[in-house]
Amino acid sequence: MKSELIFLSDLHLAWEKPAITARFTHFLQHRARQAKAIYILGDLFDAWIGDDDFTQPARVIRQHLKQLVASGTQVYLLQGNRDFLLGARFAAATGVQLLEEYAVIDIFGTPTLLTHGDLLCTDDHAYQAFREKSHSPHWQQNVLSKPLIVRLLAARWYRLQSHLHKRSTSYTVMDVNQDAVIDAMQRYQCWRLIHGHTHRPDVHCFEINEHLAQRFVLAEWHKNAAYVLCWNSTGYSIEVV
């Protein structure tokens, strides 16, 4: 009986990154089928303009996710800052189960908090202001009402703006704020946290009110390297895809 859990994030799939798409589809066809559940913690796509987008690589990813779910592996998806418009139509088409921006799961007896990670970057005030605006129903309805071609062009513009913002903002500002981390873990009473977003893979150990706490940061996928966090009853490992 399958019991392993696999966590990944920040694939940033896009038509101009075919090598990463090929690596991910191979993972879905083979390694992922050995797991009980796969948790994708945001930014599966580099940009998501609506569930009515059937251009590549969205089309092929829908197909392979559906096949993986049909094989008996559960797939959970948490929206990131690049694909926060992923919605119910995508979930219904693939069998993927959408998670809230903070989700608590049990990993072999330990409550564990999952999130994409962008909510923890509270020092990046410009991004947090955009996030608040872009997650409002009015903003999303306005965007999704536009023709598909307009949204495709807008997504390219936003990706350029994001690139320029990163170049002009220090790594310290764009990283998680430790007080925000502690606040979230205390709020959900979890002393283990798994997230992506920052592209700074590591395992951080610290204390919260005499509780030993751990923060696992997932790696961004590249065309030449990709890593996943695997968990079974004996512990965790970082595995190369």
Describe the structure.
The chain is α/β, with parallel strands linked by helices and 241 residues long. The protein has a single domain, classed as Metallo-dependent phosphatases (Purple Acid Phosphatase, chain A, domain 2), CATH 3.60.21. Helix content is 35%, strand content 23%. The chain has helices at 18-29, 58-70, 88-94, 125-134, 137-144, 148-168, 171-174, 178-187, and strands spanning 5-8, 37-40, 74-78, 97-99, 103-107, 110-114, 192-195, 202-208, 211-217, 227-232, 235-240. The strands form 2 sheets. Strands 4-3-2-1-10-11 form a 6-stranded mixed beta sheet, covered by helices on one side. A 5-stranded mixed beta sheet has the order 5-6-7-9-8, covered by helices on one side. The model has no long low-confidence stretch (mean pLDDT 94).
Topology record:
Blueprint: E1 5-8, H1 18-29, E2 37-40, H2 58-70, E3 74-78, H3 88-94, E4 97-99, E5 103-107, E6 110-114, H4 125-134, H5 137-144, H6 148-168, H7 171-174, H8 178-187, E7 192-195, E8 202-208, E9 211-217, E10 227-232, E11 235-240
Parallel strand pairs: 1-2, 2-3, 3-4, 6-7, 7-9
Antiparallel strand pairs: 1-10, 5-6, 8-9, 10-11
Helix pairs in contact: 1-2
